[in-house]
TrEMBL record:
It catalyses: Endonucleolytic cleavage of DNA to give specific double-stranded fragments with terminal 5'-phosphates. This is type II site-specific deoxyribonuclease. It comes from the Bacteria. GO terms for biological process: DNA restriction-modification system. GO terms for molecular function: DNA binding; type II site-specific deoxyribonuclease activity. The keyword Cell division does not apply. Pfam families: RE_TdeIII. It comes from Thermodesulfovibrio yellowstonii. Keywords: Endonuclease, Hydrolase, Nuclease, Restriction system. Its EC number is 3.1.21.4.
Amino acid sequence: MEIGSDINETIEKVIINSLRKKFQSYNPETSHMPFHYRLLGKDRMTLFSFIQSLNTTFGTSIFEPVAETLAKLKHKQAKRRYVLGNKISKEAQKEIQNIINELTIGKNPDKKEEIERIRRVCQEGEIVKLKTTLVDFCVISYDDNIHLFDIKTAKPNIGEFKSYKRTLLEWLAIFFYENPEAKVNSYIAIPYNPYEPKPYERWTLKGMLDLENELMVAEEFWNFLGGEGAYEEVLNCFERAGIKLRPEIDEYFAKFK
């Protein structure tokens, strides 16, 4: 699917505006590193520090608005920072813990089964009020399927998989409390493959995540949002935005020479 020129321009503007805002708010680290400065140059060290800072906010400041723009091409609705709700049943909490326990001792994850297990108890028992839950990104397709995404921009740490899984299941329980018959799923989305050109090391997530129904990496994620070929189109938008911004970037970091 080819993205129209107007959407391309919108995506490029999102990228450019996000990076400009980052420049305006960025304060270089004040730590003095005389050996690094003399070896590599203060401008390069400042650029390195800026990239590290940018990486921590890439998901919210760039990937999420780009994903929202792209998803509106082929889906009914797309919204970042989606307000999910603030109530969950104690029976759903118990069922989620049961699922986690089973996976911990070797049961294969089966998201479709897990969804129905949570649905069955989503309104049973005492209701617990939570802090309002926000989802990184939500897509509602034209067949009213709801897709909730937790966007991860770094390589997942194996020690965090259990908490990722719990979050995905809790999102379902919170959503089902208000909408028990809804068609909904939750996913981990990783916008690019850090191992490329090698395949993504999916085995590192095996055991907790249902890899077919709970994980989207690189092309899977962007093509789901915008159609076949969307991933390459988005990469091209980033490249064009970078070319347009290059004089501003060079001028900004020249101040630190």
